[in-house]
Structure formats: C-alpha cells, structure tokens
Amino acid sequence: MNLENIHYDAFISYRHCELDMFVAKTLHKYLESFKLPRSVRKAHPDLPAKISRVFRDQEELPLVANLGDPITEALKNSSNLIVICTPRLKESLWCRKEIETFMKMHGREHVFVVLAEGEPADSFPEELLKDEEGILCEPLAADFRGANRDEIKKRMKDEGLRLLAPMFGLNFDDLKQRHREQRMHRILAIGSAVMAVVLAFGTYSAITAHKIKKQSEEIAAQNVEISRQAGEIEQQYKESLKKYEISMADASDTIMSEGRRMEALYALYYSMPKDPANDNIPYAAEAQKAMTKALGCYSSGDLYMPMANFDAGSGVTGITVSPGGVHIAALNESYNLVIWDVESGEEVAGLSVGDLFNNMDYIKFLNDDAILTFDEEGEYIYDIPSGNKTYISDHVGKAFFNSDHSKCMVVNDDIILIDTATAKAEYTKPMISWEGDFAEENYANMITASFSDDGSKFGIIVSVGLMEDEKNYFVVYDTDSGDMIQNVYLGPEGDYYTTMCMHDNMAYVSATSTGNYIEYQCVIIGINMDEGKIAFTNNQLIASFLYDMRYYEGEEEDFLYARDSDGPFTLSPYDGSVYYNSGLSSAVVDSFPLSGGKFEVLITKDGTINRYVLENGLVLDSSLYEYEINGKVKDSCMAKGKLFLATQGRNYVTLYEYLKSPNVEFTANVANYDYTSDNLKYGVILTETGDDEFTVSLYDTLDASLIDEFKTPNYRFNYVGDGDDGFVLFGREALEYYDIAEKKHSKTIEFGDDIYLYDLEVYGDGNYLGYFTTDDGNEYVEFKNTRTGEDAGIKIDITGFRLISDDVACSADGSHAAVCDSKSKKIYIYNKGDTKPYKEIMGDYGVVSSIMYSSDGKYLFIVYNSNTMQIYDAGTCDLVKTSYGDYGRIWDVISMPANGNYLIKANTSLLLNPDMEEIAEIYFVKGYNRKEDKLTFITTSAMFSSPVLSYDEIIKRAAEELGSYQPDARILSKYNVQ
User: CA nearest 83: which of 56, 122, 61?
Assistant: First the structure.
C-alpha cells in the first residue's frame, strides 16, 4: 500500500474492539458525507465544500516499534488526528504510538478527541493530557457517549460539528447555527412533501375502499412479517447476551487485578451458558478463556494470582503483615491504621495514629495477634483479639527485630526490649547514659539500629549534640540487660547513616555524604567491635542511599547483601568493595530473604518480582503474574508465601498467592536435563567431552535412572513427535536417529559438501530435516525424513529471497512445505513433488516472525512481528482466522485429536478450540501427551501434567468455588453485573 502522494483531512485512531470500531466507522461515514451549508460557503468561498478524504485503518494495519509504512505515511499525510477514546484505548500501545508520532509531525493543536465510553480520566491517554514538559493540557473533545448505538449516532450529529469546525477553520457556534438553519429548511421541504403524500393517500383510500375484503389477506401477511421480526428480535437478544458475556470477560481482568477474585468468578459464571449446547445463552470463547484464567485451571503453583482485596477507605501509604500471615495492617492517608483477618477478609480493628508520623517504620506486628503502634499519647501494644492497649512509652520509636523475630527493640529516647511471644516489655532503659564520652552532651537522636546475628547484642547509630556540635557514634548494648557495653566515634555532622548490620565482632554501616548537596557519595564503614575502632572505610560504592543490609555466610566465602533504589549489591565483608551490582529497570520498593540464604526477592515499583542470586549477582526470572499489577507499587510485604502489594493512589491492599489447580498433577522433580520429551517420560543431557565429541545420556524422568549413554560428534538435538519413539542428533557430519525402544542409533543422512551445516533445522514434529543447497548458482531448501533419510520430494528455489529465522516450515507428514521471503512479504506454499509453489500468500501484516504447520498438517500458522496471527487451511490456503495478541514467536502447533483442540507453544502458550478461538492462556507448557490427553508443564521446581478440561468441567469448578457467595451490591453495580 503506497500512501506517499495521498493527502488525508483526518486520520482516525482507535482500538479494534467492537464499540470503538463502530464509532470509528460511523464517524468516518459522517465526516466524508458532511457538506458545508451554502450560507457558510458563500461567506467563505475559499473553503472546500466537504471533507475530501479520511484515513481509517479498517484492517488494523501492522504497527511495529518504529511505526513503519503504511501507517507512518498516512500519519505524515494527514492534517488532523481524531482519537476515539474508551477505557480500552490506554491498553493499546499501537494507538498511543500513533498519537505520539502524529504530535511529533504536526503538533498537538491538530489532535481532536472523541469520548465514546467511560469518563475522561479513565479513557484519555496520558499523551493527550500532558504536554512534553509534563504540564496538564486539555484536548479539544467531542462527547459521543450514549446508552446504545442509536444514541451515539444521534450525539454524533451535533457533537461531530466540534470536530468539523476546526478542520474547516471555522467557529463551532457559527457552524452549528448555519447547520441548524439548513436542517430547518430541509424539514420544511420534507413536511411539504409529506402533506402531498397524505393528500394522495387519502384519495387513494377513497378509491380503493371497496377492496376491504382483502384485509384478511393483508393481516395474514402481517402475521408472517411479525413472525419474521420476532425471529430477528430473538437473534438480536442473543447477540446482546453474547456481547454482554464478552464484556464480562473483558471486565474480569480489571476486577481480578484489584484482588476481587470471587467477584470476577461471579460476573463470568452468571453471564455464561451452563450448557453450551443450550443456545438460550450463546457461547463465547472469550468468556471461557477468562474463566479458565480466573480459576487458575492450568496453574502449577508458580504464578502469583490476586486472591483478595482489603479496602482501607482512603489511599494506602504503607502496609505490614504479621509473621504468620494471619493479619494484614495498612496505614491510610486519613491517619488510620486498619487491620484485617487475612483468611476471612474481615476488618478486625481501626486505630487512629493522629498526624505524628504517617510511616510504617513505627508500626510493626510483634506476633500474629499483637501489633506495636502509637497515637497522641505515645507508643502502645494493641492486642487484636481483646482490643486492649498497653502503653510502653510516651514517645514514638522505631522497632527492630532479631533474626528469629523473638525479640523486638523499640528505640526512642529509651530502648525498650519486648518479648514478641508474650508481647510484653522486659525492660526500659535510657538510650544514652550521660556519663563518660557523653557527659557534656544534652541531646541524642537514634538514626538506625540492628541486632547482631545471634541476637546477643544490639547496636545503634546515635547522633549526639546539636547543630554544628553534632557527633555520630556507634553504640553497642547487651540485649539481655540493656547495658551499654561499647561506643565508637564515627565522625562529625555531614554524613547521613541509613542502614547497618552486625556479625560476630564486626558491624557494617552505610553512610551517605551530603556535603555538596548535589552528588551523594555512599560509604561502607566496617567497625571492629573487639578493638572498638573503624576497621575500614570504602567510598567506591556506586550508590546514593542504601536501604537494607544483611550478612550472609556463603559456601566458599562470606558476603554482605545491600540495596539502593536502583538495585542490589553483593559486597566484601573485609573491605566493603563491590563483588556484584545489578541495576534493575524499575526502582526497588522492598526485598525479602529466601530460606537457604542463596537468594533475595526484590519487589520493584512496576510490580516485577526478581530473584537476586547473592553469590554471583545474577537477577533471575522476572516472576510471572496471571494478571498485571494495577498501578505502581508503593509498599509491599510478604509472609508464608503470601505477597501483599499497595499501589499508588489506591484505597486497597491486594493479596497475591501461588495458586495450584487441583487437576494439575505432580510428575517429577526437575533434574538438570538439557532436553525433556513432550510427555515428560524422557530427559537427555548432552555433555561436551572434548575432541569435538559429546556424550548423550538418556534418563527416565520418573526415577532419574539412566537408560542409555553413548557418544556422538553432533551437538544439536530434537525429539521426534512427543519423544515416545526417538530423537535426532545433527550438526556436524551426519544426522543420527535414535530409537528409544531399541536403544539404537543410526546415521540416516550423510552431510555432503552441498549441504550448509550451519543452516540445518528440524521441522514437522521433528520428522523432517530442512537444509540449504546450491545448484547452478541457485539456492534451494530441501527436506529429508529424519528416521529414514528419504527425500521428501520438495525442492524450493529461494534464490534472491531474504530469509529470517523460522521462515521455513514443513508439515509433519511431509505433504506440504512453506517458505517466507521477507523482502517481498510473500509466503510460498509447495505440495510434495512440486518444484514450483502452487499458492502464494501475501503477508499483509509486516515482517513474519514465524510460520508453522500444525502437527496434523491441517493448518498453517503465520505470526507477524506486529502481534498478528493468521491461520490458513493448509490444503486450500483459505484464510480461516486472523487474531491479534502478544504472540511473539511460536515454537510448535500441536493437534489434540481427543478434543479437536490445538495447542500453540510459545512463551505464553494458547489453547484453541476447533473453531480456532482462544479458550485458555497457559504458562510453562512443555507439550502434550497424546496417549493420555494431558498437557505437560515444566516449572522452575518440578514437572507437572494436567488433563485438558472441558467447558462443563470449568463451569462445574466455578460453581463449586462460588458456592452461595453473593457480591456486594456496589460491586455488581460498578461492573454492570446482572
């Protein structure tokens, strides 16, 4: 599509959803059919009589990262941009990229907004509300919102003039007045015509009065028409039910992301047919997919699911959880501390903290039933079951715990030791004894503190004195007695101490120099407590403020863990030097140690969970959520596998837990296999042994027993089928097929000089080896059967083609092959025995990322970088389906004969029904066990399998989970749940 010389008066940008598409299509017709009133044209003879051309992406043209042709050309050649805004628009990176690109080309003043659904705050993207400097601005907007499509059309006739006026360079009020006058003239003309018709009709009635006898025939005809209309009404009713069902599927993501899982299940369940064979309520695949996701039907326990929501009444500023995860507490913007029972979700206490400190550093759970908090009278321990308050001080202090959470030290002007099991103070002693080094001082302020790793000592960084006389000390106390046993002078004012930890005879302190107020310099200070002096000072740490520090005993050597807002550090405990530093893409909100001392869990502002490997500084697998985090994370806490997140600007706390579906069965613990068969029966380890030789070790995964072991020069591996029969090895001299049952391997294909070894690939469930050859200066792709070495009889001339990875495919039975030329954007289809393609498919959606035949050979799947997938009938090459989503690159398409479904294997795998509709989104899928009709999974911890659930089983599971549950009426109203 060449758009270089085509000019558009307007470009309509919209999300390709049903309502948005209707508004865009109707607006397109409205704009191109509008004509300026004659009075306006007389007053402005230089203006065009109408809008000449409007660009609307009817087929959702592909959108790549740089917004390539033809979209860029259309934007470049458009005078104005009209954005159809609904709550779904914010989710479209494509539309937001169109807005950004247009404003760079033409400026913000030529961007107009149509509000089609929702409120402006929910529907207008940030690009339209803020300019380049972040200053709020108000776009020119027309309000098309209506209860139904007829109302939207009616609104468009008036509100559309708000868009047309600036496009013609006119004033809205003037255009509206002239348009009204034109309409009145038209109404008068129509009225005169109607009167003429009425008169003629009266005459006709008088003449034909004698034909009344035919009325019975006319009534009969009317009855037929009424029956036809009734059928249409019934069909429209069913269509409206299906639309409502799909809208509930869309809403369930939002409801789930807020932690309202039961409400989401309720909304889906009561909008879906209980029996898809009964067409009283139509079936919608979108609803089945959403229900499968909300139930966690294929969850193996490695994904966080939002399970509950705790409403704090106003914006949450901080949260804390009890050690056993029994209670969760949140401090809100109204200076109230709200406490809930996690299991029941019931609010068990609401306490006012006044406006002393809106900070969770001063509020901590001592045990599952007691929390340390404060009010205007001072610090107290609140017993949740009884509601009793026990004041321990008239000052407010920060709380610090020892490693096993058995002791808590509260530090203000005093130090107060609390036994967490009994929630009672064991002693209260002054933080500073004004004797010795402190005899001449009169003021002390605690900065940070820590228990020693064995809990026998307690250290505090204390600032002593006022203003220019301020001095900093490290003070050590005996935990049991509270007596001061040591103090070490750290230095005068100028350093800000943020965190510390203690181990054996050493204390480690983080300080930040704030002397120049421009660049903060972080310093690690090591203090030898035996000698009572500073052992080292290291200012080479590239950080600003450290917020956490812990000592770990490693297998080979000990180390310190520390973190700032940008990421974690592994440091030397001997001189404070940096072993490892890993920056993250989003600011770190909190971190938690995992049992075993090998990992730290890092929670970032964007909601990502990372595992930081302490001993090598690696950041592992950003954890997967079944649902996206709703907002930026403000605070987090974790206990007993329960993760609680508070997001900015939200009134609620969301509980996330790992959910394991009861139908997902454990198969085996994950061993260090390089390759695992789809049915999880076999595992292979390929080990390089030197001299261009590898050892192949075949294992039974159930008991990890060695089945066979042999050597090979080949280093590339692929199972054939699901791995029941055998696998192939290739890469250097020849292709070898290994028969698992016979424990034999044989060379089926000898690689000659005409085969490019670096271009070998296995296709069609591992049944065919594809390779590149040359002949008479031309280049070809050919295929051979991996078991027998026989030629497949397909030779594809690719001379002049531009091939990218995964641009070649062969069906499992060798009857079809396909190749994509990314230069011409064409996919060429070959039959067995052909040397010329019998069909060409034009790649209309940009660059192809992968093409793949389904394992039964019935369908050809084409996936584009534009997140578009097309499915073709492999025999006729007729287009079956076009879908849009975050597909990435697919690895395999497996047919499931037991139920007619198809499994698309990718980073996030998809389950399709026989109509090629998506009915499930599944993580960690390894493959499909054809003999047992089970999906197989490999997670970070184990192997699992699960039967493929039918629609009836999913509905039954939902009914069981819901029981007699009834949502709050406000929630039903908010999400239009009927």
Answer: 56
Closest CA to 698 of 732, 717, 934, 785: 717
d(CA 424, CA 416): 10
Identify residue 464 by its one-letter amino acid code: V
Query: In this predicted model, what pLDDT tens digit does every residue of 791-838 receive, in sequence order?
Result: 888 888 888 888 876 789 999 999 999 999 888 888 999 988 888 898
Contacts of 203 (CB under 8 A, 6+ apart): none
Q: Is the pLDDT of residue 35 over 90?
A: no
Closest CA to 371 of 402, 408, 335: 408
Distance CA 940, CA 907 (A): 14
Neighbours of 200 (CB within 10 A): 10
Distance (Å, whole) CA 215 – CA 695: 94
Judge contact between 822 and 847, C-beta under 8 A.
yes
Predicted pLDDT at 180: 56
pLDDT in tens, 628-650: 787 889 999 999 989 999 998 88
Please, what is the average pLDDT of the chain?
A: 85
Report the run of H or E that residue 165 belongs to, with start and end: helix 149-168
Going edge to edge, which strands form the sheet with 609-613? 588-593, 599-604, 609-613, 619-620
Do 264 and 301 meet the contact criterion of CB atoms below 8 Å apart?
no
Considering only CA atoms, which of 35, 495, 302, 304 is closest in space to residue 942?
Answer: 302
Point out which residues pair with 365 in neighbouring strands. 371
Tracing tokens 């659930």 back to the chain, one arrives at 949
pLDDT digits (tens, 9 = 90+) for 481-493: 999 999 898 876 5
Task: Judge contact between 382 and 371, C-beta under 8 A.
Answer: yes
Task: For residue 951, count CB atoms less than 10 angstroms from its CB and return exposed for 0-12, middle for 13-18, buried for 19 or more.
Answer: buried
User: Is 578's pLDDT higher than 60?
Assistant: yes
Cα–Cα separations (whole angstroms), residue 229 to 223, 226, 237, 748: 10, 5, 12, 68
> What pLDDT is attached to residue 178?
63
Angle between helices 149-168 and 18-33 (to 10 degrees): 50
942/962 Cα distance (integer angstroms): 30
C-alpha span between 611 and 621 (Å, rounded): 7
Instruction: Specify whether the CB–CB gap between 638 and 601 falls below 8 A.
Output: yes
Predicted confidence (pLDDT) at residue 148 exceeds the cutoff of 90: no
Dihedral pair phi/psi, residue 328, rounded to 5°? -125, 140
Helix or strand run (H / E) with residue 835: none
Find the mean pLDDT for residues 571-586. Answer: 89
DSSP 405-450: S-EEEEESSEEEEEETTTTEEEEEEES--SSGGGTT---EEEEEEE
Rounded Cα distance between 714 and 128, Å, is 57
Q: C-alpha dihedral over 712, 716, 720, 721, to 10 degrees?
A: 150
Q: What is the DSSP letter of 156?
A: H
The Cα–Cα gap between 581 and 542 comes to 9
CA angle at residue 843 from 14 to 67, to 5 degrees? 40
Using pLDDT thresholds of 50, 70 and 90, give the confidence band for residue 125: confident
pLDDT one-digit tens code per residue, 163-204? 888 888 888 777 776 655 555 444 334 333 433 433 444 444
| Cα 198 → chain centroid | 64
| Three-state SS annotation for 12-63 | EECCCCHHHHHHHHHHHHHHHHCECCHHHHHHCCCCCCECCCEEECCCCCCC
Q: How far apart are CA 742 and CA 724, in angstroms?
A: 12
Q: Whose CA is closest to 661, among 324, 291, 932?
A: 291
Please give the helix or strand (H or E) that residue 391 lies within, else none. strand 389-393
Mean pLDDT of 435-459: 82
Binned at pLDDT 50, 70 and 90, residue 757 comes out as: low
